[in-house]
Each structure stands twice: as structure tokens, then as C-alpha cells.
Amino acid sequence: MRRVLRGCFIVWVVLRYGLDELVLSSFDHPWIRRLTRIVSTGRHLDNPRGQRLREALERLGPIFVKFGQVLSTRRDLLPPDIADELARLQDRVPPFPSEIAIATIERAFGRRVDDVFSHFERVPVASASIAQVHFATLRGGRDAGREVAVKVLRPNMLPVIEKDLALMRLMAGWVERLSADGKRLKPREVVAEFDKYLHDELDLLREASNAAQLRRNMAGLDLVLIPEMLWDWCRNDVMVMERMHGVPINRTNELRRLGVDIPRLARDGVTIFFTQVFRDGFFHADMHPGNIQVSVAPATFGRYISLDFGIVGTLTEHDKEYLAQNFTAFFRRDYRRVAELHIESGWVPPETRVDELESAIRAVCEPYFDRPLKEISLGMVLMRLFQTSRRFQVEIQPQLVLLQKTLLNIEGLGRELDPELDLWATAKPFLEKWMLEQLGPQKLLAQLKAEAPQYAKLLPALPRLLHDYLRHRPHELRKELDVLLAEQRRTNRLLQGIIYGGIGFALGLIVTQVLLRVRLW
Ligand SMILES: Nc1ncnc2c1ncn2[C@@H]1O[C@H](COP(=O)(O)OP(=O)(O)OP(=O)(O)O)[C@@H](O)[C@H]1O
Fold it and tell me: In a designed cystine with 136, which of 17, 117, 200, 258 is the match (CB 3.0 to 4.6 A)?
């Protein structure tokens, strides 16, 4: 019954804010028209469509607000006016009572909160739709006296989330089935992505392990601080970590007053991000200003502080190669290479014509070269590439969409800190180094080293495997041997050619040298 009521409420909000016109312009069923007439009094149709969508999501509650935030990052699917408006959604909700936070903590540790903490701040420092954060001081154990931040999940979120997700899936199905416009927006894909995102956010142990991995990766860089996770006190619904002391990154005036080198900060941000992407293939993917602070402690002055590790992106070697090669080809304006890369990697159907893809890519990328190289946004380039690829029936990998979104965040942040920031100059060495490493002998050695244990395991078993094979498949073996022998003969001929050629060349060289010397003397 509750689900039906909630469904009715959602339909009411959709009609009242005129979202039917916004999403479903080709969706003109008589019953929709009738329903629209019923709720048409007071329909908010004067405001721009993006604003109407934002207000409707706010009306529908925190899960829908989060949905809107996630949706705002899909600039490859949404028109810019809607994406901009959705990006304004604030996931700040009134905190839940501290008694509930304390009860969750006590249940998680099986101890009274006063036994765990010598001091616990009842008023949270921040509260969002999924969790809130309290400052505290640990009482006992090996971290006694340590100042910590305690993140506590909002209780009973799972059933609420599941209910809203079920309704979203239903609505996405309708939109996709009934409207041509709706299909283009890929609503079911978007809801599935959101589903994963929400479930990931509901496990604080996952978040803590992401933080620990990033902390290890970033340890040698000396540019960013990541709170230490206090594993004795981490559970699925409670996470205790080192408390960091910093100034939020968007308080630039305060940072300047304290003597922080702002342009350096902008460069460091890009360096950190590219190290995470191209060196580690593991990057913080929720880089909004609320999650970034700057340390003002004397020992670590001017370093970034990174918080909130609910969303991280991972990239395979293949993804990294795709990015490095595409960016490099793009900056050489070699659109044919970009097109070839898409076909070689199997992203585009093999029958795709290179010249067609090349000209589509040129059409979206070329306008960017109107401006100086340093002003070009890599995030935007990537987004344009994805938009073009979609036209050629390519399903873009979610980790690359996440990367593109984070790239836009980082660039936005960098430019806000320093409008003169030359993104390409900062990014280029990373791409070049990465490309060199991929092609150089070090990479081959590293690969051999990585495979060595496999070979060591395989070698002793080789005689037995060969024996089995000979016993059971002599005919196939003969055929394969014939192929191998033919191949060897061919290689021998080639080798002979090379050797004879080499000897001839060397003799030629010696004779020339002798003749030259004779002439010189
Ligand atoms: N280790 C920490 N040290 C100091 N402050 C912290 C720490 N962790 C979190 N905070 C504070 O709590 C705020 C919210 O933390 P966090 O972003 O992890 O929570 P959240 O519920 O995921 O919020 P959102 O979804 O809005 O990003 C941070 O902006 C910061 O002010």
C-alpha cells in the first residue's frame, strides 16, 4: 500500500513540475493528458526545465536528490542546462538525532559509547542523506587519546533505498518503453548505475579499504594527506578515522591570508589526479570541494587533505592505454588515429568506416582548437569523444565515464584556484612517461617478472603434460608439429638471409673504411 502511495506521489510531482513535457515530449497518451488536467492547477511551468527538474527531485526526498547529483555527472547524456541545474543539488539534510548515532555505535562495538570515546561531540560536523560525521577522542586501546572523526550510517536506509530504487526502475522501464526521446536518455542504464553507487555507499568497510589503498598509493608523493583508518573501530555502519585539520579548499581568501601558494596548489591537484589515474589506475572519484581541504599544520603546510572515499574509480592497463593514446593523438589533431584506436580496441563495430568515424570525431573536437592549448579541457574532450562513440553504437565503460566526470571536477577546481593553470603542460609529462613505459624494455621485463611464478609452476609439469598429449592426441600433434616445422624452416631462411645480409653489409663497411683510410693517407 505504501509503495502505491509513494508511486502516486511521484506521478503527482512529475506532472505538477511538468516533467512529462520535459522528458517525454513524444509521449502523448490520452490518460496522461487527463491526469495532467486534474493536477494542472498550480503547475510550475514558467520556470526553466532544469530548475523544474531540480525542484521536483528536492520534493521527492534525499534519495532522489542523490540521484539528481549522480545524473548531473552524465553530461554525455544530458543537455548542459539540465546538467548545470542538477549539479546545484545539495545533499545536506537535517542531522539525525545523536542518540541514534550513539545507539548505532554501541551496537557496532558491543560497548557503551563512553567506554570507546573519552569525548564524543554530539552535534555532527556534517550530515548527508546516507551518513553523518561526529568528532571524538578515543579512550582506550593502542590509539588512546587520539582525535578521530566517526562516520555513522543513517539507520534503516536499505529498505528506504530499495523502495525508491524499485520505483525508479519501474519509471525508467516506462520511459524507455513508451517514449523515443526517453530511450535516448538510457534511463534503465542510469538507474542501474545509481543502484550500484548507493549500495557501495552503504558499506563503510568498503569506503575504509578504499581510503587505506589510496593512502598507501599516495604515501611517496608528499602532496596529499589521507586519514588513517583505525581498523579496530571500523564496521559496516561505523567508520573511525584519524581527524584531519584543514581549511576547505573553496575558502581561497583564508588560504591566501595564511600564506598558501594557490597556483602551486592548482598544479599539485592535477599532479595528484594524474598520478592516481596513470600510475596507479585507482582514483578518488568524488572530488567535490566539500571533500577537499588544505593542511595548515606546520609539518604538512599547503598539502591537500582528501576525504570521503565512497566512490573510487579503477582503470585497467587497457583503459590507461586507450586514454594516453587518444589524448596524445587528439593533441596532434590526428583524428584518423583516434578513429583507428576505437576500431582496434573493438569498441566500435569492426565494419565501421574509419573515414566516417574520423570525420565525426573531427567535427566535435576541432572547435576546441580555437582556443590556446592550455585552456582545453581534457574532461570535455573525453566527453565529446564518448558522445561521438555513442553515435557509433559504442557502450562506454562506466569507469571511463567516472574518470571523465572527475576530470571535469579537477579541471574546474584547478581553474578556480588559478585561471592561468596550463592543464596540458601539467598533464603532458604523465602521458608521455606512461606511453614510454608501455613501449619500453622495462615494461617487458616487468611483465616477464610478473609471469615468472607461472612459468616456474608450469615447467616441472611440462614433461607429464607432453606425455599425456602424445598418448592421447598423436594425430593432432603431428599436424601441429608440421606447422611448427614449416614455421621454423621459414624462420631459418629469414635468419640466413639476415645473417648473409649482415655479413655482406659488414664486409662492405670494412672495404669502404679501408678505401677511405687509404685515400685519407
Ligand atoms: N577524517 C576527517 N577529519 C576531519 N573532518 C572530517 C573527516 N571526515 C569527514 N570530515 C568532515 O565531515 C564532512 C563530511 O564527510 P564525508 O564527505 O565523508 O561524508 P558524506 O556523508 O559522504 O558527505 P557527502 O556525501 O556530502 O560528501 C567533511 O566535509 C568534513 O568536513
Answer: 117
- Using the Cα atoms of residue 95, residue 100, residue 102 and residue 104 in order, give the sign of their dihedral: negative
ipTM: 0.97
CA of 247 to the centre of ligand 1 (A): 13
Report the DSSP pairing between strands 117-120 and 126-127.
unpaired
Q: Which of 490, 303, 285, 249 is nearest to 407 (CA)?
A: 285
Query: 359 in a domain, yes or no?
Result: yes
Name the grid cell of 448.
616477464
Q: Is 143 a catalytic residue?
A: no
Q: Is 215 helix (H, G, I), strand (E, B) or coil?
A: helix
Q: Do 170 and 262 fall within a single domain?
A: no
101 and 125, same domain (yes or no): yes
pLDDT tens-digit series, residues 455-480: 666 667 767 766 776 666 666 656 66
Determine whether the annotation assigns residue 338 to a binding site: no
* 253 and 134 part of one domain: no
Domain hosting residue 301, numbered range? 246-439
On whether the CB atoms of residues 214 and 306 are closer than 8 A, the answer is yes
The answer on 186 and 49 residing in a single domain is yes
E-strand stretches of 34-164? 117-120, 126-127, 131-138, 147-153
User: By the 8 A CB rule, do 137 and 147 touch?
Assistant: yes
Whether residues 17 and 67 share a domain: the answer is yes
CA 149 to ligand 1 centroid distance, Å: 9
User: 128 labelled as ligand-binding?
Assistant: yes
Q: Are 285 and 365 within one domain? A: yes
| Mutate which of 157, 225, 308 for ligand 1 pocket (most atoms within 8 A of beta carbon) | 308
Q: Is 130 annotated as a binding residue?
A: yes
Domain identity same for 192 and 292: no
Please provide the average confidence, as pLDDT, over all residues in the chain. Answer: 80
- Across 176-202, b (16+ Cβ under 10 Å) vs e yields bebbeebeebbbbebbbbbbebbeebb
* Residue identifier of the C-alpha nearest atom 22 of ligand 1: 308
Tell me if 179 is assigned to some domain: yes
Give the DSSP H/E element, type plus range, for residue 324. Answer: helix 317-331
Q: Is pLDDT at 494 greater than 60 in this prediction?
A: no
Q: What is the four-CA torsion angle of 437, 344, 273, 328, rounded to 10 degrees?
A: 70
| Count of Cβ atoms closer than 10 Å to residue 144 Cβ | 10
Q: Which of 146, 171, 200 is the last residue of a domain?
A: 200
Structural domain count of the chain: 4
Q: What is the value of pTM for the model shown?
A: 0.75
